[in-house]
Design goal:
With 326 residues, the protein is of the alpha+beta class. The protein folds into 2 domains: 122 residues; 164 residues, no CATH class. Helices cover 54% and strands 12% of the residues. Strands 1, 2, 3, 4, 5 and 6 form a 6-stranded antiparallel sheet that branches. Helix 3 packs antiparallel against helix 4 and helix 5 crosses helix 6. The N terminus is likely disordered.
Amino acid sequence: MNEAGYSASMSHADDQRLAGEAAGVIAATYQSYLDRFRDLTQHARGNFENCDWHAVQHDSARRLDLYNDAVQEGLRRLWSLLGPRVADGPTWAGLRQAYADHVAGRGDGELMETFFNSFTRRIFHTIGVDPAVEFVAPASDLPVYGPPWSMTVSFRREGQHASLYRDLLEHFRFAADYDDLEGDALRIAAAVEARMGAHQVRGLELARSVFYRNKGAYVVGMVHTDGPDVPFLLALTNPCGKVVVDAALLTADEVSIVFSFARSYFFVEMERPRELVDFLRSIMPRKSIAELYNAIGFNKHGKTELYRSLLHHLRTSDDRFEIAPW
């Protein structure tokens, strides 16, 4: 190999090494963000049990800042590593390829892709999208989840109907005891029976994690019957040191209202956000993926899903944007 060829080979190897290091910086910064996100999420149960509503407000506000803080931290590290090349398009094209290796096999790969895009959009101020330096469509190897779910717990009806909900409440216990567990179980059973009509309840399938927001805690899932499955949501409150079942919601419309846009998002523990979103969509089929990501605290990725749904709609219909009349 002549000197020019050797130099070009070395330059390519250096570019690959640098792209790999930069991709590692973004992946590490994402993990730091996720660790802080999960740390705040783990506070939610104790805040509910202790009626510490000031802490709830503090954690909700703090969580909104985590994402931007992490991106700014990552940008500073990339400037130190890349120097002027931080704004070089070809460098980012290689970086994108290297970063895809960090995404592969992750249960939260879709969030990692959005996190990467947040860097490129701040650097290049992209109008529209640039597939060379962004993840536009989700990676083909990202999993699509469906039943059987790994993040649910099931309860089989055996004996009296109310005993099913007694088992549920016993499973989802808190440091603060229930005010009237037996009475709540009977009232839940009466509400479900009124909704079911002639159908017989066979059991329950519920998300393992409780959803916390503001002063409420929510147990979310579905009722299995000898007919169609029915949405199921218990709203729990802790007004004075004792947990109370405030409501049992048993229609997709009612549950959707709880998951509609709010200034404060849920705190809920999860390993695979997309699996949780897919489970929630099985309960609320008319709720968009974007809305559900927003609801569980990943509003940045919610924007990504909204844009992807728009692109899909434009590809599969004859609709086009029109200039609004004056």
